[in-house]
Fold:
Amino acid sequence: MKELSKTRSRLPHSGIRQLMELSAAIPDAIHLEVGEPNANTPLHIREAATAAMNEGFTGYTSVYGFPSLRDALCEHLARRYGLTITSEQVLVTTGAVTALTACLQAIADADEEILIPDPGWPAYEMMALAQGSAARRYHLRMENGFAPDLEELERLVTPKTKAIFINTPGNPTGAVLTREQIMELLAFAVKHDLYVISDEVYDGIVFDGTHISPKAFDTDGRVISIFGASKNYAMTGWRIGYAVANPEITALMGKVLLPLISCASSISQKAAEASIRGPQDFVEEMRESYKQRRDKAYDLFTQANVKAFKPDGAFYMLVDMSELDRTADELALDLLKEEKVAVAPGTTFGELTSKMVRISLATEESQLLEGVRRICDFIARHKR
Ligand code: PLP
Structure:
């Protein structure tokens, strides 16, 4: 038989998935590897889905999503971030991941370059590579609070650079970009005529400071902001995400999405509408709960003299294990073997985290803290 696609065969494996699969075989393992809230979707959202099914919202929708949901999103984003957008600037997809993929496909061609953060969510690189674009990594250093370095970005940009991915609050860093940092990034994008793909799926999970949406400072339609229901409302399985972009981009994204998904699930869209229009207590309670877990986990690491980055948002914490003479892949496997703790190996996010592991704070508190204690014991035992 002929060979499978060369471009897609070169895609890297996800280190997180590998750890998930290995740890699934260990019944009493502590799971700190997955980026998923440890709560069920709030009841009023589930009830809205049941009502939608019973009322017959069970067919295809427009590829852009239900008009009522797009209107609700416009109101929500106007309230939260002062965005003045119309519904033709909003597109609903099957999770933020599909919005990001469709957005990149609408913007970039195979021979173009995309700037992606290192460390960054692994799917950005996969998206770029899957369509034959080149991924160029810009570094976010722990000692700079994981902020981008504009001088480095200037060195990386070439005439072929088409877009830059930014992610605030960040995965895996938990760093939240300030208004000044966002303004600098936008000025850089304008200077080099780049599109800005702004991944804001953790916008409801900021502990210190506030989330600033880059879309609020977009003067010429080059920013595409991506939001989602998964993280804020514990709706990972419902698969709902949104893109906010200029109408020319949303129209092309719609064309890209038709042969891929036709539309997002009608029932999930109705549930997502309820999440936005309904009470927001759940988001606030979860944020407070993640914050408490962050503080407790960070204190345990500090007491054990382990260097961890205290995140301002999202629900992850990076733990520096460079004192141990092993790669993050080895560290993650050894932690699972010796301590029965599953973590995400830093190698999966880029080269700067090749001696770090990421833990998820979206884990039940006693499990999380037991996992942290075991990581500290492991480091103490194996320190050079
Ligand atoms: N963006 C980032 C930074 C993420 O961490 C994730 C999920 O882990 C996503 C996007 C995808 O979210 P969704 O479930 O909406 O596809």
Remarks:
- The chain has 13 helices and twelve strands.
- Residues 94 and 264 are 5 Å apart (CA to CA).
